[in-house]
Amino acid sequence: MLNLHTLKKSGKTEPEVGWLIAEEITHRLYEVLEILAGNTFGNLRQRLARHLLDIAASNPQPGSILVAHITQQELADAVGSVRPVVARLIKELKTEGLIEMGSSSGDGITLIRPVELLNETWSR
Q1: By CB neighbour count within 10 A (0-12 exposed, 13-18 middle, 19+ buried), where does 83 fall?
Q2: pTM to 2 decimals?
């Protein structure tokens, strides 16, 4: 358990602790800004890739398999599009070997090459 009062006091009186706190806050701020920029300015494919990664990472499966348990309609709603457009993008990702439909449990979208999917969020 972290005592907030002690942390504040240490941050104010110990320069090294204060600097570490500032670095951590800065790092987290940049992460939030990156996500916000991706959601605001990213194209639909980038937003879809990011959302698939976020969903799969939030519920890891045994054996390091990343599966996004989500329907195409839920994906469309999440990325601000319509289901037919999301279905076309999912087909493209599947054709490129980045994802597979279904998983060992029979539903969801399995992320076959998550690193390349992550690169989708930066490219184009």
Answers
A1: middle
A2: 0.70
